Every structure is written in structure tokens, then in C-alpha cells.
# Entry
Amino acid sequence: MAHAGKKRKLDQTRPDRVYQDRVYFDSYSDVSIHEEMLADRVRTGAYRSAILRNSASIRGRTVLDVGAGTGVLSAFCVQAGARRVYAVEASSIAEQALKIVKQNNMETQIQVIRGAVEAVELPERVDVIVSEWMGYALLHESMLQSVLYARDKWLRPGGLLLPSRAELFIAPVSDPVVEERLRFWFTVKEQYGVDMSCMRDFAKSCIMNSDISVSPVTVEDVLSHPARFAELDLDTLTPEELREVKGHFKCSSFGCASVNALCVWFSVSFPCPDEPQLPVVLSTSPFHPETHWKQAVLYLDCPVDVEQDTVISGEVQMFASERSDRHICIRVNCAIGDENRQNKTFSIPDWSAQS
# Structure
């Protein structure tokens, strides 16, 4: 597993929602994050495929793009035949979206609107809402709340949401990099003649802490089939239900290994009227091609050895941090085998991971 790189500190002296929103929107004003998202072919390709496959529902209709960014999803909607697209974007990248719209001769179809979707007014209700709202572990950044607001205020009855469904999964993993980093402190004496083995416990407390680590997980490190613990139907999901997303899970280990973490990931699906049984699915699973979301890795306090078919079961709860509504917390209460219980809360309290 690789480990997330930069950590951008937030000003903890002003945790109010207005300030947190400004920091959040400002983070989308830099080119790097948009380059990363557009370069994610799994993400961008899934959206383009889903939008074009829904062209019968989009052609001649109105669309709201929530959090439009550079406007690429709005452009896909025009390619699918949309009569009018309202591209709502709160960050200053909206200025670049305007240029992109003009460069592609889409001014008559796309109207870029600068502002949060909760604060803007549209001239009409829309037939379709499209949004790429997913954050790390699905709910980090809390943008889904904005999509639900837009759905309730601007989507016509029977309108289309893209995507329309999300699922959350969990599985036990063994991270060999952690074990190598902990063993490192026993090799210092051999290399330099200074015994630093006492550093292992300190290193363990630093590495296997309560942070949500955004890291790519290799298939070989996953120790069981994934267990789905939550499913969200965006057509009916309420803001109140989104305040705490939780569910139970149960899985069995593949063989003998040391479980030192749990891994959480998500998928979203887009309905396709031409083949209802074959929706377009955008998955961030370690069993699928890597996306910029990677996976959310939750390190246990102590590794636990498992054998073939050892049962790992428990409950996962996801909720907003007390310090910021946009930062997700994940509480896991689980049993590994018959005796070992783990109860730990993980968070992204003061940073945004960037590649």
C-alpha cells in the first residue's frame, strides 16, 4: 500500500460552518485537484458513459450540474442532447468553466452560475440532476447534503438523478508496509551500532493511529470477500438519514494472516433505461482499477492473527466530525474471532489528503 501524501491543516480557531465552507470551496480553486479528477479515467469515463446512455432522458431536457467544477459533466450532458444545463459551482474555478464553455461553443446550452447550490436561484425546475459529489469513504466533504437539497428544491417529480444509488463495503486487510516499518527499528543496531528497538511502540502509536488513511490497497492484502454494510437510495434518502450512516457486516478470512487494518470503499451506480439490469457502476474497490479516491484504511490498535474462515463481524457507523460537518468520522465496533474485540473511532479531523 502507498500512503497519502500531503496533509493540509485547517485553522482550528474558527470551526464555524461558514469558514469551513470557504476552506472547502477554496480547495477546488487550484488546478491540481481538477487535473487529478479529469485524469481519473475510471471516474470520468463512467460519468460520460452513464450520461450518454441516458440520452433519451436528457435530450431536449433541462439539467442541473451540482458542483460543476470545470464543467465537464455539463459538457457531457450537452453531448447527450440537453436543451439547457445549469452548471452551479461555488469556487473560483467557475471562471475557468466559463472559458471552457465558450471554447466549446456551448454558451447557448450551458449557463455557469457561481455560488453554492443552497444559495442560488434557477429560472426553472430541472428534469435531471448530475453531480460528482463523492468524497473519501464516500461521505467525506458532505457534498451529498447539497445534492439532496437540490433534489428537493429543483428536481421535477419523476426526474432523474445521476448517480442514483451508492453502496459502502468493508473488508479486513493486512498491510505489509506497516510491519516493515515497525521491524525497521530492530535493524538500526545492526546497521549503525545503536539499539533503537524501543522506538517500535512509539512508531506503532504514530502509524496505527486514529486517522483515516487514504491509500491504495492491493488485492493481495485483502483477507476476505467484501461485506456491504450500507446502501443509499438517492431518490428517497433524507438529510436526517444521512446524519448517521451505519450497518452491520460479517466476513470470513481467506487463510492464515495478520489483520492490522480494515478497509472501506464505495461504489455508485447510474440507472440505464436501455438495460435496466446493467447499470453503469463506478467502483472504488481494490478489486477494480484504481481511482483517485483510493480506499479508506482504518488501522487497528493491535494486529490480530487469523486462520482460514475466522469470522470478522461488527458494526460500522459514519457521521460528521464535531469540529467540521465536512469531515467524516468512522466508528468500528467489531469482533475478530471468538475473543478479540476492537472498538475504535477514526477521523479526518484537520486535513485533506491529496495525491
About this structure: Residues 1-14, 351-355 have pLDDT under 50 and may be disordered.
